[in-house]
């Protein structure tokens, strides 16, 4: 079993909370910077999970999902932020995409 760190890309205000939980925090100020920092983390051997806050990814979610779908490691996931929440998912749409019809 491989071990690694949990990295969180988030805004400055939220950084302290994730540090208290033991995550390695990467501060970002805007969506373009978030993409750059995410790509940097892809090259790190110690990165097992990368959580990206919607607050610093707003408008780049599709690009982040595309990157996440192409790499086996680290696991990349978008998480709710204080300002921006993920869109509501339609379970039927998710199922159709999973089956290759969406």
UniProtKB/TrEMBL annotation:
Q: Which UniProt keywords apply?
A: Ion transport, Transport
Does Ion transport appear among the keywords?
yes
Kindly give the InterPro entries that the UniProt entry links to this protein. ATPase_V1-cplx_f_g_su, ATPase_V1_fsu_sf
Q: Name one GO molecular function term.
A: proton-transporting ATPase activity, rotational mechanism
Keyword Transport attached: yes
| Pfam families, per database record | ATP-synt_F
Recorded family membership: Belongs to the V-ATPase F subunit family.
Q: Would you tell me the protein name for this molecule?
A: H+-transporting two-sector ATPase subunit E
């Amino acid at each position: 079993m491989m071990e690694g760190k949990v990295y969180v890309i988030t805004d400055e205000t939220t950084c302290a909370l994730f540090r208290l939980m033991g995550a390695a925090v990467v501060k970002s100020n805007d969506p373009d910077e978030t993409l750059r920092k995410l790509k940097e983390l892809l090259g790190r051997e110690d990165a097992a999970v990368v959580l990206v806050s919607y607050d610093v990814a707003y408008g780049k979610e599709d690009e982040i999902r595309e990157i996440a779908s192409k790499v086996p490691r680290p696991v990349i996931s978008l998480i709710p932020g204080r300002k921006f929440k993920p869109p509501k998912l339609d379970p039927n749409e998710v199922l159709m995409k999973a089956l290759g019809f969406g």
